Amino acid sequence: MKMEKKDWIGGKxxxxxxxxxxxxxxxxxxxxxxxxxxxxxxxxxKAVFDIPKKIYECACGVGHLSERLKELGHxxxxxxxxxxxxxxxxxIDFLQLKSLPSFxxxxxxxxxxxxxxxxxxxxxxxxxVKQGNYVFMFLKVQFLEGKKRYKELYxxxxxxxxxxxxxxxxxAKNADFEGVKAGGGSAVxxxxxxxxxxxxxxxxxxxx
Length: 208
Known about the structure:
Helix content: 25-40%
Largest sheet: 8 strands, mixed
CATH class: Alpha Beta
Order of helices and strands: HHEHEHEEEHEHEEHEE
Low-confidence stretches: 4-32
Oligomer: single chain
Radius of gyration: 16 Å
Strand order of the largest sheet: 4-3-2-5-6-9-7-10
CATH architecture: 3-Layer(aba) Sandwich
């Protein structure tokens, strides 16, 4: 499928003129925020859920999740606020988007967001996707807790599914997976949080 995306590529200056300047400074958004995700996370999700064909990966980093989705036959559009030499949409601040361009209207959203902005990423994703489409976020299990998250998110937009990983999936700062392994691996528990826009009901907890 050919996707018209000329308005979504180019230098950061041209992108910001189109979308509006970011509210998040380079220092705040970039420092310690790039954590690459082991592609096994996609396989784990795929084993328990039929991931839609068309996916917009809005914080793609160097493409670990996007590339695995492509290998599995998905149509993927990838963007990131920072230039990691990967993706079609370099310099796009996902949190500043007012709408999805026409070539992404049928896409669901999937990513491992910067954790300090995870709530904002979920809410923005639900705002952007069309009714019935999905928002998949790979997050720490502890994202389930918190008064602010309950008030702003869960009380209004409960996830349809939460798939908790039975194994530790690595997320490596600056994609240094070998360094994480050398340091003993990870003690962090992760889950896929799955929202379907328009879903009304209780969240279903499962393991993967």
